[in-house]
Amino acid sequence: MKQSKLLLFSILFSICPYVNFGQELAEQVTTFVSVKETIVAIKNVTIIDGTGGDVKYNQDILLRNNKIASIVKTGTKNYPNSTKIIDGTGKTVIPGLIMLHEHLFHAKPFEGNFKATHMTNTFPQLYLAGGVTTMRTAGSIEANTDLNIKNLIDQGKMVGPSMDVSTPHVERLGFVPQLQSLYGDESIENWLNYWFDKGITSVKVYNNISKDDLREIIKFSHAKNIKVTGHLCSITYREAAELGIDNLEHSFMASTDFVGNKKENECVFGEPSLAGLNDNDPKLIALMQLLIDKNVTLTYTPNVFEPFTNREVIPGGGSVALAPYLLEQMQTFYQQQINSKRDSLGLISFKKEMKRVKKFHAMGGKITVGTDPTGTGKTIAGYSNQRLIELLIETGFGIEEAIKLSTLNGATYLGIASKTGTIEVGKEADLVLLLGDLSKDVSNIRNMEIVFKNGIGFDSKKIFDSVKGKVGLH
Length: 474
Fold this sequence. Notes:
Blueprint (H helix, E strand, L loop, with lengths): L1 H14 L2 E3 L2 E3 L1 H4 L2 E3 L3 E9 L8 E9 L2 E7 L10 E4 L3 E5 L1 E6 L2 E6 L2 E6 L3 H8 L2 E6 L5 H12 L7 E4 L22 H11 L3 E4 L5 H13 L3 E4 L6 H7 L3 E3 L21 H5 L6 H12 L3 E4 L23 H14 L3 H22 L3 E4 L13 H13 L3 H8 L1 H7 L16 E5 L12 E6 L2 E4 H7 L8
Parallel strand pairs: 4-7, 4-8, 9-12, 12-13, 14-15, 15-16, 16-17, 17-18
Antiparallel strand pairs: 1-2, 3-21, 4-5, 5-6, 8-19, 10-11, 19-20, 20-21
Helix pairs in contact: 3-15
């Protein structure tokens, strides 16, 4: 009888969810958990804390439950025998990345058209494996799916970061069939309230809207304390800033402010006007100052504009993640593009944008970052987030500022900086432990070992390995 009870208990225990810090974790989540102890000390580690301050060497970080309990010089604190000790010698800890232009879909260009395929299972896992502990979906193809994923992650039933979910891309008739949201004279207020009632917490406007549309969208969103961001075309940055927009995507790459004879509410391609724009043009400086005065944040997304020449087929090492048939297509496209005239012009534009972003930052402009996995399909969740840190160094930022842009700045914009975004006592244990000294070699960003999200340590490599060859399928 006693043995029967023990057997029954064993069976029940094996099928019941794992409980950590009061949260139940499903088996499909716990399979990737490498650190589950409630008291953990990472000893003798290098810290880049996300504040922009100097790198700190030979530090101990104590995690208790899901909080950062202490940060001290190595050798100055003793730990009880019950503490899980992690040797941080030769390793670096940074805050969990907070990225503000992410999507849960993969781009599939075809004969000049574009289709987004939702990566319901692979992308949430890849984001977390790549060190992202919080992300905003800057526009949704399947907003209901994104909300469901967010809820399943929060419930401990899926692997992924905390999510701020945006509306579908708000626009009228455009060139991407999956994106049109507004039709005729339908009520913008009703449309927004439909999504707000479902739990949407950000609004993303897109290329083809009018100034009147944007004015209404901002008015109704702000009344609900919800921010509005935009990838604009028909509306200039100056017009959007004066209407009260909170955030503009793709830094200056989507700006149409310098297109000659642009008509109001007309969507035009702005990149040629930017390519010929001098970095010190008074009109550019005036626009930057207006954005600063109007408290508009720019999201810098260099990944989606990264050229092909002298770079990886899938920047960040993400080739291993693609389904074989997609990788073959991308390799063919890569060979067609490298050293082409189009790619040479893209490289010039890419470098000029880096200078504009640096200038805006130096003037005091607010910058967040994101990867935008769209475009030609070479931007892969997780891998691209790590690659972004490398691109920030290429832009000219020091490692301390690069990490701050990727952590604290995003937390500040989302209004969660009091609990996450930096490595400080009392904040949530959202951390990334990686092999190597990141302050000496930025490529060590690819050597992530453990991603702590709310105190739970996930095995980065194990997650990456589990979805190799599956992006494009799942």
